[in-house]
Amino acid sequence: MPMRRRTFLKGAATTVAAGTGLFPHVWVKNTGLAYAQGGEIKVGVLFSLTGTTAIIEESLHKATIMAIEEINAAGGINGMRIVPVEEDPASDPATFAEKARKLVLSDRCVSVFGSYTSASRKAVLPVFERQNNLYFYPTLYEGRECSKNVIYTGAVPNQQQDDFVPWLVEKFGKRWYLIGSNYIYPKEENNYCKKLLAELGAEVVAEEYVPLGHSEFSSVINKFRSEKPNVIFSTVVGDSVVALHRQYRAAGLDPETMPMASLTTSENEVAAMGGDAAAGHFTSAPYFMVWDSPENQRFVEAYRSRWGGDKVTHFVSEPSYFQVYLFKQAVQKLAASDITPPTIREAIKGEEMVAPQGRVRIEPENLHTWLWPKIGQCGSDGQFTILKQSETWQEPDPYKAYPNQRCTADGLKEV
Predict the structure, then answer these.
(1) Chain-wide mean pLDDT for the chain?
(2) Strands 40-46 and 36-37
(3) How far apart, in whole angstroms, are the C-alpha atoms of residue 151 and residue 3?
(4) Rounded-to-integer distance, Cα 165 and Cα 320, Å
(5) How do 40-46 and 111-114 pair as beta strands?
(6) Is the CB of residue 267 less than 8 Å from the CB of residue 295?
(7) Torsion over CA: 74, 76, 79, 81 (sign)
(8) Which H/E stretch holds residue 231?
(9) pLDDT tens-digit profile of 242-290?
(10) Distance CA 42, CA 61 (A)
(11) What domains can you pick out in the chain, each with its CATH number?
(12) Which of 41, 47, 153, 267 allows an S-S link to 57, with CB 3.0 to 4.6 Å?
């Protein structure tokens, strides 16, 4: 039976489209060939180098690039070189989404490492879920997310607060002031904090949020002075952290009687504000630069050698670094023709390594990471003294504030 001209042209067009990649869904079976060719594997690096969160994201970019350079210098992944495609989303969630689409669709990156704020992660999430690509997210975050397209290597609320909040209540008292930046992360962290405080018989005297990039805290400082809370629980991020600490110190408030206890103030922000502005205040995190281990010593020395002797490492740059090595371990299991985002996701489940903070592991059920919670107090030298560390690594429970829900390998379940 002769083929009709329209049928022939339709079939030819499909063949051409498949060959050129204009319609990626046509050639799903062969996507592995597109991801690992010519001895190279392309990955995206999506951290802000400009804008309000560049103060922190620039260091995440540096840690990611350093890990890629180290892996390539050691022979790559099964002889294949990692090629980073770098984009600056300028601290803007809409730009994050735009750049993510470029990296996934145009650049054909097999995975992307990126984001600091939850607002930017939420902005890119539809891109990775629609295209079934993979996003490595290194930041502490609020939990309450269950995606098969994100590898979460930062802490969730139970890994920062379960030890921290009871310790602070016992040491300082039960009257708390909650101050955060105005987006999802601080609000969800505070939601979990309030649950813990209620269990401990503590009270929240005020809860307040300021815009991202906010720099005028005089009215907030006046409220601190009038309310006299025992603890100021801070989830302020970016440049605003620097302004808040400097104005707190200028107002003559005393961390010995009214400390700020933060989930978001790292060595990086302290370096920007100066050690005197941060001295006496507390942070809970899985990693501090002073942590004494051979792995951390190598990490710190390599980071300073690569980026400058005045640079600091911190609890978000550290997972930015080790997650690239977890990516490497996953890809090493695969033949070049089998390297795709879904195969990497399956290969990374249960992967472990000794990171600078200690041994970490990707939980197969929810793609979050087992970590080592620590409590540190900042000194005037800009470094933290570690006052307490968990006796063992802590399981990630992204839905602990919502006990009727659980993230599983099959998706979010009601329990």
Answers:
(1) 91
(2) antiparallel
(3) 48
(4) 26
(5) parallel
(6) no
(7) negative
(8) strand 231-235
(9) 999 999 999 999 999 999 999 999 998 999 999 999 999 999 999 999 9
(10) 16
(11) 21-155+292-371 (3.40.50.2300), 157-285 (3.40.50.2300)
(12) 47
How many Å apart are CA 161 and CA 112, to the nearest integer? 29
| CA-to-CA dists, residue 67 to 60, 111, 329, angstroms | 11, 15, 13
Q: Could you tell me which residues come within 8 angstroms of residue 46 by beta carbon, excluding any fewer than 6 positions away?
A: 87, 89, 96, 99, 100, 103, 112, 113, 114, 115, 124
Instruction: Tell how strand 374-378 and strand 384-389 pair up.
Output: antiparallel
First to last CA, the chain: 59
Distance CA 373, CA 111 (A): 28
Q: How many CB atoms lie within 10 A of CB 125?
A: 20
pLDDT of 164: 98
Q: What sections of 334-396 are H helices per DSSP?
A: 341-348
User: How many CB atoms neighbour CB 197 within 10 A?
Assistant: 24
Which amino acid is present at 329?
Q
Look up tokens 């993230």; give the residue: 407
- Type of residue numbered 391: E
CA distances (Å), origin 241, targets 62, 275, 331: 21, 13, 38
Tell me the whole-structure pTM to 2 decimals.
Answer: 0.88
**For residue 37, what pLDDT is reported?**
87
91 Cβ neighbours under 8 A, 6+ residues apart: 48, 50, 51, 52, 53, 54, 57, 120, 238
The DSSP secondary-structure symbol of 2 reads P
How far is the CA of 114 from the CAs of 94, 192, 300, 358, in angstroms? 14, 25, 21, 22
* Secondary structure of residue 240 in the 3-state scheme: helix
